Amino acid sequence: MDIIMVQVISSIFATYGFGIVFNVKGNKIIYASICGGLGWLIYSLLDYNGFTNLVSYTAASSGITIYSELLAKKLKIPTISLLFPSMIPLVPGGGIYFTMYNLVQDNINGAIEKGIETFVISGAITIGILIVSTFSQIYYYIIKNKEIDNRYI
């Protein structure tokens, strides 16, 4: 469990660094960093308990997206400004590297295996973002229209 905490702290610092690269200003970079750490914590706990990559990455990206959506509404900023840097710890860069490494080493089976794993991880991250973003848009649409309907009643 100690290694998970070291990884979470490392992901907070990595997210902070990418927040600088993505030009996230003020205290928003702190919120994005905490969000990146939260996402990695969700992933690590699920992975530690034996869940598949699909479930772990989907839950982690969903958690990051929920946090980003709620905080963006509170701070009145675009969700994407928190979401982009926060997803950096989950991005399967190592999988992409090892896919290409296996191709260069002429290990086609290893490249296919790593490529499929990387594709599944990328899809899981996308699914998590898509589900939460869609439901939050529907929720805010309903709330907005309910307020409009209540004014005319």
UniProtKB/TrEMBL annotation:
The chain crosses the membrane at residues 6-22, 29-48, 54-72, 79-99, 119-142. The keyword Chaperone does not apply. Signal peptide: none annotated. It is found in: Cell membrane. Residues 7-134 form the Threonine/Serine exporter ThrE domain. It is a multi-pass membrane protein. It comes from the Bacteria. It holds the Pfam family ThrE_2. GO terms for biological process: succinate transport. One of its GO terms (cellular component) is plasma membrane. Keywords: Cell inner membrane, Cell membrane, Membrane, Transmembrane, Transmembrane helix. PANTHER family: SUCCINATE TRANSPORTER SUBUNIT YJJB-RELATED (PTHR34390:SF1), UPF0442 PROTEIN YJJB-RELATED (PTHR34390). Belongs to the ThrE exporter (TC 2.A.79) family. This is Uncharacterized membrane protein YjjB, DUF3815 family. It comes from Cetobacterium ceti. The lineage of its organism: Bacteria, Fusobacteriati, Fusobacteriota, Fusobacteriia, Fusobacteriales.
